[in-house]
Amino acid sequence: MNKSLLPYLILAGSLIFVAIFAEYLTPFDPYVQNLESALTPPNSVNLLGTDRYGRDVLSRVIIGSQTTLCASLLLLSVISIVGSLIGAICGYNGGKLDTILMRISDIFLAFPQMVFAVAVAGILGGGLFNAAFALAIIGWTKYARIARGLTLTIRSLPYIDAAKMAGTSSIGILFSHILPNIAGAILVTAALDIGTIIMELAGLSFLGLGAQPPTAEWGAMMNNGRSMLQTASWVILSPGFAIFITVAIFNLLGDKLRDVMDKKSVV
Amino acid sequence: MAILEVKHLKKSFGDKIIFNDINFSVDAGECLGIVGRSGCGKSTLVKIIARFIPADSGEIFLDGQNITNEKNLKSIYAKMQMIFQMPEDSFDPRKNLGWSISEPMRNFNFKNIDERTKNLLIEVGLTPDFVEKYPHEVSGGQCQRAAIARAISLSPKLLICDEATSALDVTTQSQIISLLNKLRTEKQIAILFITHDLKILEKIGGRVFKFENK
């Protein structure tokens, strides 16, 4: 493994570790209300203070990492796998299927992504699943485009002709030769997209179209603390800072991964 | 008996006629050299014979069977294999040579594939440890030998060599030609050798078909 990638992998791995074991890392129950200690500023007991219901903000930020990261990574996995498969099938087979699916993707790409997601999530109603679904509807197109372009390049290479002459079926060529050879580029794109997906999901939750109360989710937590920015800034700043740190780490990881996998891109 | 017979083959792209009324045949154990300048349509002809693209008209017979519109390509490739111009590009960069050489045998449900793969490597002048090597880890000549090993793994009746030596240095060219000649005489494989270099054809011997646009 490339050593320069290690610090970023450790940081991202730490975030994922926190998300997986969030239940065991929270100092207090993130959902238990205690109105007597509502809006307590950060202190030695509640390190990041409490919100308007007296819930420990640090505990909610930690448990919120589970909601935000899991939803984002799951969404990213779905759109990158589905999009890549569609793109690779279109690129390899061509024909009418390619034309139809690529025109559909053109239609989706014509919409501003966030506006479209807000509209879809608004129609479907609030909820993390609906927000993720709204982002997935438009998100797969990018991966389909990239996978199709890469497949078009690869399918004309001699080793694909050699595989055909070896008697390998179209599905075999797709899964044995094409997808493994485009996986690197897709992985880099996905790594660079994690930050964007986290921001978009948090954005939809901030608008009230994502996670619903009392679920601890960073965007929804920022929405809850919005009216208290001047009186109890820790309520909005803590999840905001968590989003900032997470997005920065995954963006740096994505950049480094791209540099490692495509040395030509290092300027 | 003719292993490959091409009759009245025609191909055009749009209004541009690439070739018209091409006729030739290759017998078992014979080498037919197809020569022509760059851009004359040699590679297009190869792609049509290998069934990668369709012809406008004409017929192709392989071992007596009309394969012009044959749907079962797998049955065609059991009798016809190809060696490509750029040896490294003809192997999947993510697979080792052993995997790639044994790919045809896996698809045709051969037995003792590992042993057969090693024997094929020895037959083309490589050592069995090449199964673990990746295309970028070996020289162009070694890679082309591995390509020949893959091509003969199904014991084909026809071997198409599409500029198979043009990317190699002179010494390696001679070695590959000797290997092809050995296979031709020992296994009675018909060879269709596409090149723009007449000197190469003199070394390999056999008839020459001069390819010209019509």
Write the layout of secondary structure elements.
The complex is a heterodimer of chains A (267) and B (214).
Chain A: H1 6-20, H2 22-25, H3 57-93, H4 95-109, H5 113-124, H6 128-154, H7 158-165, H8 170-206, H9 218-225, H10 234-261
Helix pairs in contact in A: 1-3, 1-10, 3-4, 3-6, 3-8, 3-10, 4-6, 5-6, 6-8, 7-8, 8-9, 8-10, 9-10
Chain B: E1 2-13, E2 16-27, E3 31-35, H1 42-49, E4 57-62, E5 65-66, H2 73-77, E6 80-83, H3 97-107, H4 113-123, H5 140-152, E7 158-162, H6 170-187, E8 190-195, H7 198-204, E9 207-210
Parallel strand pairs in B: 3-8, 3-9, 6-7, 7-8
Antiparallel strand pairs in B: 1-2, 1-4, 4-5
Task: Characterise this structure.
The complex is a heterodimer of chains A (267) and B (214). Chain A is an all-alpha fold. Chain A has ten helices and no strands. Helices cover 72% and strands 0% of the residues of chain A. In chain A, helix 4 (95-109) packs across helix 6, helix 5 (113-124) packs across helix 6 (128-154) and helix 8 (170-206) packs parallel to helix 9 (218-225). Chain A is elongated, with a radius of gyration of 22 Å. Chain B is of the alpha/beta class and 214 residues long. In chain B, 34% of the residues lie in helices and 26% in strands. In chain B, the strands form two sheets. Chain B has a five-stranded parallel beta sheet, sandwiched between helices. In chain B, a hairpin with a 2-residue loop joins strand 1 (2-13) and strand 2 (16-27). In chain B, helix 3 runs parallel beside helix 5, helix 4 (113-123) packs across helix 5 (140-152) and helix 5 (140-152) packs parallel to helix 6 (170-187). In chain B, 43% of the residues are buried. The chains are: A mainly alpha (267), B alpha/beta (214). At the A-B interface, helix 7 and helix 8 of A face helix 2, strand 6 and helix 3 of B.
